[in-house]
Amino acid sequence: MITQTLKWVGGIDGFLELIDQRRLPAEFVKLQCRDVEAVCEAIKTLAVRGAPAIGVCAAYGLVLGMQKLAADAGLEQGLKVLVESCEYLASSRPTAANLFWALDRIKNHAQKFIAENQDATIAVLQEAILAEANAICQEDEYMCRQIGINGEKFIRPGAGILTHCNAGALATAGQGTALSVMFEAQKKGRKFKVYVDETRPLLQGARLTAWELKQAGIEVVVICDNMAGWLMKQRSISAVITGADRIAANGDTANKIGTYSLSILARENGIPFYIAAPSSTFDLSVKSGAEIPIEQRSADEVVIFAKTKIAPDGVSVCNPAFDVTEAQDIAAIITEKGVIEKPNAEKIARHLGGPSQ
Amino acid sequence: MITQTLKWVGGIDGFLELIDQRRLPAEFVKLQCRDVEAVCEAIKTLAVRGAPAIGVCAAYGLVLGMQKLAADAGLEQGLKVLVESCEYLASSRPTAANLFWALDRIKNHAQKFIAENQDATIAVLQEAILAEANAICQEDEYMCRQIGINGEKFIRPGAGILTHCNAGALATAGQGTALSVMFEAQKKGRKFKVYVDETRPLLQGARLTAWELKQAGIEVVVICDNMAGWLMKQRSISAVITGADRIAANGDTANKIGTYSLSILARENGIPFYIAAPSSTFDLSVKSGAEIPIEQRSADEVVIFAKTKIAPDGVSVCNPAFDVTEAQDIAAIITEKGVIEKPNAEKIARHLGGPSQ
Asked: Is A295 near chain B, with CB under 8 Å?
C-alpha cells in the first residue's frame, strides 16, 4: 500500500491528519491537527517534511485558522484572520518555497472570492478556501502520479534501482516523485529491488524511504552511502533514480548531498541516472549549477547520532546539505509533463514552455 | 602528540598497557592487561583493533602467559604453557592473519631457544620471549615510520587530504600507515588539513581517526562518506590517502568499503589517490582484485546505531566490509620499502623482491 502522508478529514469543520514522521520507522502514529498552531508545530518539528507536503499542510492550516471565526463573522474579519494565519504559518520554516507559494495562493484566492462575492457568508468563504486547499492537494497528487506514469518504463523487470534520501509519498501529498516511478512500475506488475542509501547525516533513506517502500510491498535493501559505488560495479544496481531540490536552466540539478557522487559512479559503471521531479523544481533564473547556493547545516547533525557523540570534541565538521549533479551525467529528467532525455537548456525550455504530454 | 596504542611496562614481570578503543572518543582510558585472559578479552571486544596492533598484543600476551610459571619450572613445562597460551589467544579473533603470524613467530623462537639452550632457567626463556615480542613491536614501529618517511612528500603545503576508516597509530604498534604519512609531513613543518570520512557503518573515521589526528595537533574536518566526492569537486580535497587490507599481485587493493568509490571520484576530479601499507599486505597468491573474497558483515552493524534502530523491521541490508580499488586508479602504493608509482604486477614483484630502499 502506498503511504498517504496527509489527509483532510471532513468539511470546513474538519481536521488535518498527518503521519508523524518524527516517530518513523519505530512507530507509525497519526497526528490530528485541529488548529493552525498544531500545523505550525508539525512543520517546525519535522513531523511533516518535503516541500510539496509542507505546502499542502500549510493550505489546510489556513482552513483550520478560519474555524475560530463565529458563524456571523463578516468577510473582512475572515480575511483578517486568514492573513494572520498566513503570517503565523510562514514562520514555521522560513526557507520553504512551497510553503509561501501555497499561503499566497490561498490568500489570493480568498481576496478574489471576496471581491466577487461581497454578500457571501463566512461559511461560503470557508468553503472556497477549503476547495482551494483541496485543489492544491489534488494537483500535487496528480503531479506525483504523472511523474510515475512518465518514468515507469525506465524500470526494467529484475532491475536493481538505487535511490537516495526520500523523494517519496512522505514528502508530498501524493505518491512522491522518484518513488512514484517505482510505484507505477510495480502497478505494471514488474518485479524489482530498490537499494536505499541510508543518507547520512539525517538518515532519510533508512528511516523513511525504506519504510515507505516496505509498506508498498517493494523489496528493499538498505545500504550505507559508501556502498553504492561498489554495488554498481558488482552489477547489483542497474539504474539510479533520485528527486531534486532545484534544477537550473541547463539541467544541472541540486539534490541531497551524495547525489553528485552517485552520478559519477553511475556514469563510470555505465548505469543510467534519472531525476524525477515536478516541473516547478526548475529555476530558470539560475543558468547552471555553479549559481546554486549550497546550504551548510549544523555540525551536530553529523557528530551526534541517536543522542551519542560520534566524534571527539573540538574537531571541525563540514556539512553541506546539497550538491550539484551536472546535466551531462543525467540520462533523463522525468516531470509530470513528460521526459527530457539528455537534458540541456534548449530541451528544458521547450519542455516547460510546451503543452503537457 | 602521536598516539601510542600499546606499551609493555617493565621486564618479564611487567604488564601490557593499551588504549581502550571501545571508549574513544568519549573517554581516554588505559587498560592494563596483567594476564593472558585480559589480552584475549581486549582483542575479542575490540579494545584493541587493527591487524598489526593485534599481532603485537598477542605476542605480549604470551609473555604474560609465562608469568604463571614457578621460578623453578622446567623448560618443557614452559613450552607447554606457551603453547596453551598460543591456542587460547588464537581463539580471540579467528580470522586475524597477524595474530597467528605473531603467535607462531614467538613459538618458533621459543622452540629454537630451548633447543639451543637446554640448561637455561625458565627466567632466561621468559627473557627470550619478551625480547622477541619487543622485536615484533619495534619492527612494526619501524615499518610505520618508514611508510611515513617514504610518503610524506605527497602531502604538499596547504593540502586537503582525505582519509577513510582508521589506518592510524591506533591500528598498529607504531604511528600507523596512512596517518604515518601525515605525521611525517607534519614533522617537516608542513601545514595541511585532513578530511576524515566518518566511515559507516562502524564510524572508525569519526571515532578514531579524528581523535588521533586531533591528539597530534593536525587540523581535522569530519565529513559523512557521501560528502567526499562533492568536496573533491569543490577543490577542498587535493589528495586521498588510505590504508589497505590486502593488495593483489597486480596492485588491485582491498580496503574498507567506500574506498573504491573514492578512487573513482578522485580520478574524475584529477586528484591523486595513494595507498599506504606495509609490504606484508601484498598477497601475491592473488592475481587481481577479482579473486579477493569480500566479507559480508551483519545487518545490525548498519541498522542499529547506539542501540537505536534506524531502519524499519524486516528490510534487507547489504553490508560488504571491503571493496576493491583497481591498480590503474592508484597513483602510488607507499610501503616501508619505498614507493611504487602507477603500480602494476612487474613493479610490485620488483619492489617486493628487491633490496629495501
From this structure: no
pLDDT cut 90: percent of chain B above it: 92
Its ipTM equals: 0.92
Structural domain of residue A307, as residue ranges? 150-353
A351 phi and psi angles, rounded to 5 deg: -60, -45
> CA A202 to CA A279: how far, in whole Å?
26
B123 and B185 share one domain: no
Q: Do A311 and B226 touch (CB under 8 A)?
A: no
H or E element, residue B324: strand B322-325
Q: Please indicate, yes or no, whether residues A233 and A248 belong to a single structural domain of this protein.
A: yes
pLDDT, one tens digit per residue, over A212-254 is: 999 999 999 999 999 999 999 999 999 999 999 999 999 999 9
A135 CB neighbour count, 10 Å cutoff: 14
Q: Is B222 on the interface with A (CB under 8 A)?
A: yes
Residues 6 or more apart whose Cβ sits within 8 Å of residue B48: B5, B6, B18, B19, B21, B42, B54, B57
Do A13 and A124 belong to one domain? yes
Asked, for residue A122, whether it belongs to a domain, the answer is: yes
Domain membership flag for residue B131: yes
CATH, residue A196: 3.40.50.10470
Q: Please check whether residue B252 touches A, CB under 8 A.
A: no
A119 catalytically annotated: no
The CATH number of whichever domain residue A74 belongs to comes to 1.20.120.420
Q: What is the pLDDT of residues A330-342, one digit of tens each?
A: 999 999 999 999 9
B171 lies in the same domain as B240: yes
pLDDT at A356: 43
Does A210 sit within 8 Å of B302, measured CB to CB? Answer: no
Least confident of B62-71, B89-98, B248-257: B89-98
Contacts of A257 in chain B (CB under 8 A): 224, 226-227, 230
**CA neighbor of A175 nearest in space, from A205, A138, A200:** A138
Nearest CA in chain B to A209: B311
Chain A CB contacts of B302 under 8 Å are 198, 206, 222-224
**Measured CA angle at B238 (ends B234, B241), to 5 deg:** 125
Q: Looking at A245, A252, A323, A329, which residue is catalytic?
A: A245
Question: What's the whole-model pTM score?
Answer: 0.93
Residues A217 and A114 in one domain: no
